[in-house]
Give the backbone structure.
Amino acid sequence: MTSRLTVFDSPLFLGFDHFERTFDRLKKTATEGYPPYNIEQISETALRITLAVAGFTMDDLDVQVENNQLTIRGHQNESEEDAQKVYLHRGIAARQFQRSFVLADGIIVDGAYLDNGLLHIDMRRIEPESNARKITIKSPAKVTNGHSLKQAIDVETKEDVQS
């Protein structure tokens, strides 16, 4: 039995399991080669992922976002017409695929469209609202005889010096 050691095994990293799962997903998706894809920056806040999905129709493709993970699946059903064909060479395979991308916080998917065998998925980065707020600094609570704490200390110090 082999035990798996990770950076997050330390007791100082409690609650960071989701980072470990994200790294595992990234490792797994890095080895996938099909279908090929491009990632473009369209503007300062807009991104586009383009996948080469020649031979797939809109009904064969599924695009989902769940827990900051974008997943694209392709599945072609062999029709009766294709089943009756006799191929001398079949280089265009109707293969299934699943391609996943981990999205950063603040990235939302606007939509997807299929054009000439390319699946385009448009995304944009939303700017988070600022949670900054001004904290007022209050003076210390009033102590004896309407004096503040600092004034009371100064009065006590003066009395000690005079006596």
In short: The chain is about 20% helix and 30% strand. The helical segments are 17-30, 80-84, 149-162. The radius of gyration is 31 Å. The first strand starts at residue 37 and ends at 41.
